[in-house]
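Project outcomes to date are best conveyed with an example. Our students and postdoctoral researchers have been running inverse folding experiments weekly, and each run begins with a structure described purely in tokens. The record below, which covers 413 residues, was selected by the lab manager from last quarter's runs and is presented without edits.
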């Protein structure tokens, strides 16, 4: 048995470090147990190494999960303004970029981790790395965290801040879900979000590397479920880019439910269908000496032309533009405004930035983040069934929930 602490935080990621700092500042003796060789490995990878640590425009619409109200109450207790004040006091100067995204002025995720580690040291919080917790059990005199090496770490309060299943190479491998399940909690089936999407499309080999600015729609069983505008990148397996990552949650959830899903791209979002029709009519009439296929050169990426003409069912792409009829033009316009790809899945957890699903929030007190199943156990961060859009929302959830769990765990001792 290891020396007892008032509180133990399982997982030294964003939410766990925040929880430990808040608890220690409240005078609680707290220790962090971390399975990797060091804390905060994922934090270093955030924002392409720049750490998009919050978003000034946080609103509940940017969060997903079974209960938006649950997330709202937690975010409200420690919001973006309080978060940025917290980091400012630790030495992080920051700036706001497009869409309200907050970054450290240093442009280094490592500086965010450095100040958190400095504060943990200053507060004397012991951090035990390479310690994998497999189970939490309640006994007569409190809670015990049992490690894979057979050690028992005793505490009155335990904060489970183990993350979800995304990017397991950075530490979070779903272990927190197993801990919660063994305690009697239900898990909303996890699925990857903010992840590239795989397509069922033989032409991918040909269009791998092509980038387009498009209005992308996710369709589930043919019904539009979400749309995002931005740069879409075709890859050898499917599609990536910010609009696709944003839509990927819908796709992976629909596949989990056994529904058909597809991505539809409007390559001319700035024109209405009728405007595009008259634009194409004019283009074909002035290019009457060119082939239909060649008339697209300079209009769309060359490697997309045959795919578009196939989608538009143009049998002879090499025929002259003078031969093209009104119904052909209409089908071409439809293909350009609705290039459709059937989704076969998403890339694996390794490539996903965040986990949708997790510990069922109906079994967690939304004011304190204490378990309603096992008193004394708290949850923080991505292990809970809350996930956010891209843009700093997920780290804000980690900071807010870490704060709330750390505050209430230490105040109820
Ligand atoms: C590549 C990438 C880029 C991202 N960029 C951004 C961004 O710029 N902005 C943003 O808002 N979000 C971003 N995210 C998402 C964000 O990083 C996460 O939502 C956030 O880190 C979750 O914090 P957490 O504390 O819940 O979990 P994590 O940060 O995953 O930390 C969990 C910790 O628990 C440890 N652990 C797990 N199981 C055990 C166990 N059994 N015993 C002991 N320790 C355990 C893990 O090793 C890990 O250190 C990004 C994610 C990725 C993968």
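After processing, the design step wrote out the following sequence:
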């Amino acid at each position: 048995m290891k020396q007892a602490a008032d509180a133990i935080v399982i997982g030294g990621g964003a939410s766990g470090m925040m929880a430990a700092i808040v608890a220690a500042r409240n005078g609680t003796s707290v220790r962090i147990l971390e399975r990797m060789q060091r804390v905060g490995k994922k934090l270093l990878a955030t924002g392409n190494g720049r750490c998009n640590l919050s978003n000034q425009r946080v609103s509940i619409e940017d969060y997903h999960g079974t209960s938006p109200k649950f997330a709202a109450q937690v975010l409200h207790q420690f919001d973006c303004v309080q978060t940025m004040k917290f980091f400012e006091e630790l030495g992080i100067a920051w700036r706001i970029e497009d869409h309200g995204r907050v970054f450290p002025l240093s442009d280094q995720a490592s500086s965010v981790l450095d100040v958190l580690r400095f504060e943990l040291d200053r507060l004397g919080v012991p951090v035990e790395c390479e310690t994998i917790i497999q189970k939490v059990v309640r006994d007569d005199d409190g809670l015990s965290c049992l490690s894979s090496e057979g050690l028992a770490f005793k505490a009155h309060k335990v904060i489970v801040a183990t993350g979800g299943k995304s990017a397991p190479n950075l530490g979070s491998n779903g272990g927190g879900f197993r801990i919660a399940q063994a305690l009697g909690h239900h898990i909303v089936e996890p699925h990857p979000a903010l992840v590239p999407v795989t397509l069922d499309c033989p032409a991918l080999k040909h269009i791998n590397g092509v980038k387009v600015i498009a209005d992308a729609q996710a369709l589930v069983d043919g019904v539009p479920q979400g749309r995002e505008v931005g740069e879409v990148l075709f890859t050898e397996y499917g599609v990536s880019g910010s609009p696709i990552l944003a839509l990927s949650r819908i796709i992976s959830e629909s596949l989990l439910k056994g529904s058909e899903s597809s991505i539809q791209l409007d390559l001319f979002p700035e024109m209405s269908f009728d405007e595009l029709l008259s634009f194409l009519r004019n283009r074909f009439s002035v290019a009457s000496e060119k082939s239909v296929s060649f008339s697209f050169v300079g209009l769309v990426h060359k490697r997309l032309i045959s795919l578009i003409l196939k989608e538009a069912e143009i049998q002879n792409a090499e025929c002259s533009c003078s031969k093209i009829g009104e119904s052909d033009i209409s089908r071409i316009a439809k293909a350009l405004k609705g290039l459709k790809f059937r989704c076969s899945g998403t890339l694996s957890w390794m490539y996903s930035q965040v986990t949708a699903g997790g510990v069922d929030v109906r079994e967690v007190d939304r004011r304190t983040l204490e378990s309603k199943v096992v008193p004394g156990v708290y949850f923080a961060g991505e292990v809970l069934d809350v996930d956010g859009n891209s843009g700093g929302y997920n780290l804000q959830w980690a900071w807010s929930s870490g704060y709330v769990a750390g505050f209430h765990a230490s105040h109820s001792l």
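Residues 2-192+355-411 form a domain with the FAD/NAD(P)-binding domain fold (CATH 3.50.50.60). The chain is about 30% helix and 25% strand. The training component of this project remains on track.
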